[in-house]
Design goal:
Layout (H helix, E strand, L loop, with lengths): L1 H12 L6 E2 H14 L3 E4 L2 E4 L4 E8 L4 E2 H15 L2 H4 L3 E9 L4 H14 L3 E9 L6 E6 L5 H13 L3 E2 L12 E3 L16 E9 L5 H28 L1
Parallel strand pairs: 4-6, 4-7, 7-11, 8-9, 8-10
Antiparallel strand pairs: 1-5, 2-3, 3-6, 8-11
Helix pairs in contact: 1-3, 1-7, 2-3, 3-7, 6-7
Length: 238
């Protein structure tokens, strides 16, 4: 079923002709919370759905035009349409767009949001403009994805010509995937031990089209969520 959801995401992503600014992303979420009563706003976070697994998505505000923020907007557009291929994902969707984790205010917002929502999965979406001539990506996790899901992500990125970093890669999941620790990823100390964590970091060049940036970022986090929820379900029934 994740393949069908990715197909829906692809059809939504190809509509993206330009990246949104962080101000436009913020305005989009604010207006959505006002005019769509299926959304709930808590301080700076926004929630949709009532699935058994609570999942928090946040984008990092590293530049004015944001592929990660635009990706969250594309995902919300899909959720609003109620496409059946997303309904199989047993998730309550929470969004925290435009964090600046080098800011004490944003870090406090993140800490309070996690404390209030108690998410079982946290997904970080990050894009940065690369200094090199090629795009690259790295994925950071608390625990390994299934082989099926890590292979799916790796195939999508390699097929798109994205270089997957080999330095520090997990020997099981392969190139581009690293198991994070609080020493390497200080934000992990802010989340509960039982909470799963996935971060995709995409370094882009001006040549990579906005639609491709959005699809690559959001497809990775959706596959990660599918993997984590599937593993959680298997653990509960076994």
């Amino acid at each position: 079923m994740i393949e069908a959801a990715l197909y829906d995401l692809l059809n939504e992503s190809i509509k993206v002709e330009k990246l949104l600014s962080q101000a436009e992303v913020t305005e989009y979420f604010e207006r959505t919370a006002v005019f769509d009563n299926r959304f709930t706003r808590r301080a700076r976070s926004y929630s949709f759905g009532n699935g058994p697994c609570s999942c928090l998505f946040y984008s990092l505000n590293n530049k004015n035009l944001t592929a990660s923020g635009t990706g969250l907007v594309s995902l919300v557009n899909l959720l609003q349409k109620g496409l059946c291929n997303f309904k199989h994902m047993p998730v309550t969707w929470h969004f925290l767009p435009g964090l600046k984790l080098d800011s004490n205010i944003s870090l406090g917002t993140f800490r309070n949001t996690v404390k209030e929502l108690k998410p079982e999965i946290i997904c970080a979406v990050e894009d940065q403009l690369s200094d090199s001539e090629a795009e690259s990506a790295h994925f950071f996790l608390k625990s390994a994805l299934t082989e099926k899901h890590s292979s799916l992500i790796r195939h999508m990125y390699e097929k798109s010509g994205i270089d997957l970093k080999s330095r520090g890669s997990d020997p099981v999941m392969g190139r581009g995937f690293s198991i994070s620790t609080p020493e390497r990823e200080p934000l992990l100390v802010e989340i509960p031990r039982s909470c799963q964590y996935f971060r995709v970091a995409l370094n882009t060049t001006a040549a990579l089209q906005p639609a491709d940036q959005v699809y690559l970022l959001m497809s990775a986090v959706l596959v990660a969520v599918d993997s984590i929820t599937a593993k959680s379900y298997q653990e509960k029934v076994s």
